[in-house]
Specification:
alpha+beta; 95 residues; two-stranded antiparallel ribbon; 5 helices; two-stranded antiparallel sheet; Malonyl_CoA_deC; Malonyl_CoA_deC_C; DCMC protein
Length: 95
């Protein structure tokens, strides 16, 4: 889950999220909200994402500013759960 959080939050291509689904939602102003262990146990979900599923949350009053922040300064808005996983990954990573 830590690696997944880092992949979605920290891995970038030209400054934007490397994952195309994450990039889509973040461009539209969402918050990287929650990572669910074994949220998709279908054969496709296991093969594509080791069964993990991600929730993106849209706060309607913040979508325009979140989108502008992401597109302008390439900053990803994320929940405390995701940021805690990112922090744990960074503390334990050799990258």
């Amino acid at each position: 889950m830590r690696l997944c959080a880092w992949y979605l939050y920290g891995e970038k291509h030209r400054g934007y999220a490397l994952n195309p689904v994450a990039n889509f939602h973040l461009q539209n102003g969402s918050v990287l909200w929650r990572i669910n262990w074994m949220g998709d146990t279908s054969p496709r979900g296991i093969g594509a994402s080791c069964g993990m599923m991600v929730n993106y949350r849209y706060f309607l009053e913040e979508t325009a500013s979140n989108s502008a922040q992401y597109l302008g300064s390439k900053q990803v808005r994320a929940s405390e759960q995701v940021l805690a996983l990112v922090s744990q990954f960074q503390q334990n990573s050799k990258l």
